Amino acid sequence: MADLNRSGRHTYATAVKKRKRALVLFTKAMRCCPCARGAKRDRCTCKNFDRVVAEGRSIFREAMYTCHCDVGKAFRKCDNAQHIEALESRSAMYEALNKLDRAKKDAEWMLELAPRLPDGYLRMGNIARLQKNDEYAWKMYTAGIEATKETAVGSSPKLQQLFDARKPLYRRFFRCDPLSLPTEIVAYIFSYLEISQLLFCLRVCKKWRRTLTSPVHCKLWRAVELTNRFHKPVLSVDDVKWILSCAGDGGARKIEISGREACSQSTLTLLLKGSSSLEHLKFWNLRNLSLPSNEKICNQLKYVCFTTSAQNAVDGPGGFPQTFLQNAASTLEHLDFMGIPKQWYDSVQSIPLFPNLKTLRIGDHEVQPETLDLPYSDEEYDDGEISSFPIFFLSIAFPNLEQLWIGPYVPYLKADSVEIWRDKWEEVWPHLKVLISDPHTSTADDPNQDSHVTIRYLTCLNSLQHISLEFEDEFDPVDWPFMFGDNNKILFPELDVTQHSEFKHLRSFRSSTMVLSPPAARNMLSNAIKTGQLTSFDIVFPPEDNTGVLSIRHLEEYEWLRGVPSIHTLGCYQCNLRSSSKNDKDLLLPQFLATFPNLRTLSLEPLSGRPRAELARELLAILKVTNLKTIYLRTESHYKDGLMKHVKQAARDRGVKLIGDRQEQQWPVPLRV
Predict the structure, then answer these.
(1) Which residue numbers delimit the F-box domain (predicted)?
(2) Quick check: 372 pLDDT over 80?
(3) Shortest CA distance to 269 belongs to which of 241, 247, 302?
């Protein structure tokens, strides 16, 4: 034990001697710097960084310009790296000896010599952290970053250390009153708040109330979104009056109401009547509320979206607001609703005129046999008679329509009205560019297949650019795959207008359920491919193909589609392209996709029950031979199993987004100018 003590004392004494020797060497190195010009250079004592930090003044200016003694006159600034390193090392030695005051003086000297370098700021900040003075350290780090802002972070390790040293202090010292930020940033921050949350912000302080209600921020009050999270009205009448006054002339521009109890009738009426410049209105299931219909109150309304109850009368509480819409018909451009009035089924004259409407999404409620107030009566339902919707007569009410979405729950479309349009087919929606049919329910109960015939008629409009057809029922394996083929006269002898459908403007055809025969698809797409218009197409493989033979034959018949340069999006649904070969070059789907030079998006939905190993192998091969950016994959395979994890990692390595769902249908569809 005695030997250990002696050894320890000897080592300590040696270490002390070495430290003292190091201090002497660092001091000599400082004095050897050319900036001293052979004389002894003392530290300037005129600078008071503690006072500057406390008063919030510029640390850089204090280091750069403050000097009333002879040091500033006799010596210049010095950014010699060896000089600064010697000072920093000596400061670190004093820090190790727990002489923080002397360490701080050397750090201040570094700052005095080279105020444009990050070294002094970093050393001063680190010492302040040791002294538990985090605010001083934060200001010192920040001053160093500002003083070196013209220097790239990656070019200086010390500057990077300065940023890293400041990061732990962000949470405590980087906070500020958001209203002190530029007006544009304030508006951006508070635009994420609902109107009820914005009202709470007025209670923070007088400054917030005065600023947020000033004319500069009137746009914050022009978007009113109400939800009934707490099962009670969000706004009172007084709240609405206050909001309208803050919104300025014209009141709210956007109103969205969700939930049956989100607001009262008096609140809704006041809000609408006080918003003469309203442009966007959206509401869901306002069971006991109705929109004002006795006068025209919205002069600039362009977009309306709503759901109504099938049991409520037109213009009544919770019913279809037909008169309100008619009053806004001259400006309305976008209409999206669920709940077709019964009168629209029975009388064409009951459909109001909307001359400027560009997009229409029309849906109905799911048919319930026990429900009494539906577009058809119990007697009709019992007799097997089905009320079909006269879709073609909408071309009279909406003559300038550009985009049409039929569904959900509009499975039965009337075809007999086509007879009226045979001689004036060119007048049927001459500007329609988008057609989407998604009934969300089976059309198999349609005894005359009128709905299928009507859809085929609609696709004959030559102005169409985007077609999307979805059906819930199984297709006729004989007729439907050939609906766009040359044998239309055999399948649909009454469709004489199909001879005019050239699809020369077609840009996309989407369907995850409709199995088209390759010859029919070629007949439909040939003109669009020739003109370079086609950008997106979906291939649906034959259903219940457990062996994969039908899928292979189906893909081989799409040989004519290979390598089309204009295609950037493809969909493959219910595919079961099995291969016994162990060579990836023998996999049919990857090799097929590899022929498209500009393919960037793939939607893939393999046949249910396909082995995970086969699917994973196919996906990895696709990633290798294509330049995809996004893959939409809908499969029964669990995304957390080992194979799929490997696929996801491979996708990330190649910069490909792998999304475990179907690609959503955009609405409205972006149109090329």
Answers:
(1) 175-224
(2) no
(3) 241
**Tens-digit pLDDT profile for residues 277-299:** 999 999 887 778 888 888 788 88
With H, G, I as helix, E, B as strand and everything else as coil, classify residue 537. strand
Question: Domain residues for 372?
Answer: 339-509
Closest CA to 398 of 377, 426, 429: 429
Show the tokens assigned to 269.
């009426």
Assess whether 248 and 107 both reside in one domain.
no
Assess whether 328 and 271 both reside in one domain: yes
Any idea what the CATH number is for the domain that residue 603 is in? 3.80.10
State how far the Cα of 302 lies from the Cα of 281, in Å rounded to an integer: 8
Mean pLDDT of 129-156: 87
In angstroms, rounded to a whole number, what is the distance separating the alpha carbons of residues 508 and 564?
Answer: 13
Note whether residue 233 is domain-resident.
yes
Q: How far apart are CA 65 and CA 349, in angstroms?
A: 86
Exposure of 62 by Cβ count < 10 A (0-12 exposed, 13-18 middle, 19+ buried)? Answer: buried
CB 46 within 8 A of CB 67: yes
Per DSSP bridges, beta strands 434-437 and 403-406 are parallel
Q: Cβ neighbours of residue 630 under 8 Å, at least 6 residues apart?
A: 600, 601, 602, 656, 657, 659
Residues 24/93, Cβ–Cβ less than 8 Å:
no
Alpha carbon distance 611, 546 (integer Å): 11
Closest CA to 116 of 144, 140, 88: 144
The answer, yes or no, to whether residue 381 has pLDDT greater than 50, is no
pLDDT at residue 584 tops 70: yes
How long is the chain? 673
Check residue 12 and give its pLDDT.
Answer: 57
Number of domains in the chain: 4
- Hunting for tokens 């400082």 — which residue is that? 30
- Look at strands 223-227 and 254-258 and give their pairing: parallel
| Same domain for 650 and 559 | yes
Rg (CA), the chain: 37
Q: Is residue 258 part of a domain?
A: yes
Question: Which of 509, 526, 555 is the last residue in one of the domains?
Answer: 509
pTM for this one? 0.73
The reply to whether 497 and 639 lie within a common domain is no
Q: What is the pLDDT of residues 388-438, one digit of tens each?
A: 788 888 888 899 999 999 988 886 777 655 556 566 677 789 999 999 988
464 and 437 fall within a common domain: yes
CATH number at residue 116: 1.25.40.10
Residue 370's pLDDT is 46
CA proximity to 435, closest of 455, 411, 414, 409:
455
> What is the H or E stretch that residue 335 is in?
strand 334-338
Note whether 460 and 349 are same-domain residues: yes
Digit-coded pLDDT (tens) for 556-574: 999 999 999 999 999 999 8
9 within domain boundaries: no
Q: What is the 3-state secondary structure (H, E, C) of 578-626?
A: CCCCCCHHHCHHHHHHCCCCCCCEEEEEECCCCCHHHHHHHHHHHHHHC
Any idea which of 448-457, 547-556, 569-578 has the lowest mean pLDDT?
448-457
> Chain-centre distance of CA 366, in angstroms?
30
What percentage of the chain's residues is helix, strand, coil (to nearest 5)? Answer: 45, 10, 45
Task: Give tens-digit pLDDT for 459-501.
Answer: 888 899 999 998 765 544 444 554 665 555 444 455 554 455 6
String of DSSP letters for 406-466: E-SS---B--TTHHHHGGGGGGS-TT--EEEE--SS--TT-TT-HHHHHHHHHTT-TT--E
Shared domain for 371 and 263, answered yes or no, is: no
| Residues 437, 539 within the same domain | no
Is 65 part of any domain?
A: yes
